Amino acid sequence: MVKKYYALSIKLQEVNKFIIIPSMNKNTAKAKVKLIALDLDDTLLNRKKEVSKKNLRIIGKAIKRGIEFVPVTGRPFYGIPKDVFLALKPRFVVSMNGAVVSDCNGRDLPECKSQVTLSREDVNFVMELSKRTQTPVEFFTENYAYENPQVYKQRLLKFKGTVLENYISATRMEVEDIHEFSKTNNAQEIALIANDDEAREKIIEELKPRNLKVIPYGNYIEVTAIEADKGKGLLKIAKIIGLKNEEIMVIGDSGNDIPMLTVPGFTSVAMGNACEEAKKAAHFVTKDCDKSGVAYAIKKLALSFF
User: Fold this and answer.
1) What class does CATH assign to 120-225?
2) Which CATH architecture has domain 35-116+228-303?
3) Which among 70, 32, 54 is positioned nearest to 304, based on CA atoms?
4) For 21-72, what is each residue's pLDDT tens digit?
């Protein structure tokens, strides 16, 4: 097991803020890295939702040396920016927090169970919960999120003029009655948009007794099958390619990245801007996403073998 070894604190320009950078000396990874899995938002992408020039340069070097990249994201497939595909040149994609594993064109992989969907019973329960609590809902299936027209307009309005405006418009679809739609469609994920903190806590409490994966982001509550996570999605790809866990490196920042940060054998890295839970789960902590932390980690951990 790679031991956590934090050796250096560097003060940022912002007052009273620090990032902890591990001692990443030559050959600190467990084995020669052959595949690097990257979360997107606030990991590969900075806060402006861009891939930095430094990240691009170091990723390009890694690709030339035979290292393969896989984007691993909570986004649906069609919400992944084109710049990510151009930068990583991936053969495989893990989307919807591991509920969907596909090729670079969004097609299912015949070698494994490509999609993990919620059971019909769980779909009915979550949709009934949204109706009973009058909570707006997004229903994710076939790489898109479907929602009632009113919710669709509210989401577009909320993100208008922000870096997420194009993402929302590219990944959301209107249906006249989302509850009727849910009765005849499978769901990789259902997201409940709580009206306030109190409503969020009540919804989470009602979901607790069920065997579901519940990930809240503020008042936005993602619900997926317990079998769906980024780590399991990556293991499917590793099996197809024929890689050992020790040949895989993963980088992330959020709670939904913890399942891949804790897979035995993986070399795991949390961003400097990561949540505390992700930092504790990872072997290493790199720089902030606005400081090209992905490039720093790849250079120190993966390219050190060449």
Assistant:
1) alpha beta
2) 3-Layer(aba) Sandwich (3.40)
3) 32
4) 554 444 456 679 999 999 999 999 999 999 999 999 999 999 999 999 999 9
